[in-house]
Amino acid sequence: CYARPEPTPPRRLLLSAKASAAASVDGSKPIARGRRRVGLTVTPSLTFPSSRSRRQPKQNDFYPRCTPRGPAPQSRDTPPKRDTGIASEKEWGINLLDEAVKESGTNEDGSTWYRESGEDLGENGYRCRWARMGGQTHDGSTEWKETWWEKSDWTGYKELGGAEKSGKNADGDSWWEKWKEVLHQDEWSNLARLEKSAEKQAKSGTENAGWYEKWWEKYDAKGWTEKGAHKYGRLNEQSWWERWGEHYDGRGSVLKWTDKWAETDLGTRWGDKWEEKFFAGIGSRQGETWHASPGGDRWSRTWGEEHFGNGKVHKYGKSTTGESWDLVVDEETYYEADPHYGWADVVGDSSQLLSIQPVERPPGVFPTIDFSSSPPRTEEPPGMPPSSME
């Protein structure tokens, strides 16, 4: 049942098709088409008059039910899968009840289950509808939990929590997974912004193995887009890491980067990284492939490209073994100026989030505006060590 991680092959990381770069003498690097996709700006039907407010939730009372309203929830003892990104609303299948429920039971095999749902209310029209469910075998060796929620308030903030899932099995394998979608007004640009994120982790109960992933996507109504992921894995004596990111400013400027590295308990380390920046056909690419031995010996090859926007490309590079090149070639510049999945796409795939209805606001009552928040910062997942290249 445990999703065992794949080890990184020795001496060189296999790079994904999404963000790979093979360092070579001519400096050729990942190619992305420079055709700009026609952007479609979709404005949500709701306005966003102010930023997200502070909340003071208040929990409702719950009353046990003598008879379950439906069949017992099914065991979800399957760990998440690696490299699957952020799941869609349809994949999560969130279905919240319209009333408070608290029930539990015992199955014929001795396993137990529970299911609860309710609603919390707070200031500024804050409302959170939620549901919890779970179960375990009679001896407690296998266990699973899942939580769903949706949140809203009078500022236009909406959140669909697909939740938190966790579990363990009789072999000692354990896992957890989180997923969330958020629609709000960005306090700095005053634009509608939609954000999606996911975190996943699994650990083996029989060997020194496990993995962790964090994914995020952020979009605004004028085409600004940010995507990224941080990953970590371990299998016995070998560990590996991966980070990548994409940033589109909505006006033609794009930044992409990838950094992958691995190491063994004996001290051998190796990795690849690359970065590209472009705007209006002008930009650069650069990267490095490297390897370090336990004794301190280090090999590396660095490369770079300068694209001038006139059909000329300056390619250069060198390695610690004496390789070097520096030349200007006639070459067309290719890059992706717009994300292949942008604002119009994410709005179209977030119908459940957009359909969340806030508490009705009484006439003459307006939401409290919070101006104390700080500018958004790049998220860093817990426990991610710095790059071995530094």
UniProtKB/TrEMBL annotation:
InterPro entries, alphabetized: Alpha-glucan_binding_chloro
Amino acid composition bias (Low complexity), ranges on this chain: 11-24
GO molecular function, one term: starch binding
Compositionally biased region (Polar residues): 42-51
Predominant cellular place of this UniProt entry's protein: plastid
Region (Disordered) location: 1-90, 359-390
Biological process, per Gene Ontology: regulation of starch metabolic process; starch metabolic process
Record bears the keyword Transferase: no
Source species taxonomy: Eukaryota, Viridiplantae, Streptophyta, Embryophyta, Tracheophyta
Keyword Cell membrane assigned: no
Subcellular localization(s) per the UniProt record: Plastid, Chloroplast stroma
UniProt keywords, alphabetically: Chloroplast, Plastid, Transit peptide
Family: Belongs to the ESV1 family.
Sequence ranges of Pro residues compositional bias: 1-10
The protein, known as: Uncharacterized protein
GO CC list: chloroplast stroma; starch grain
Basic and acidic residues bias locations: 78-90
Protein species of origin: Aegilops tauschii subsp. strangulata (Goatgrass)
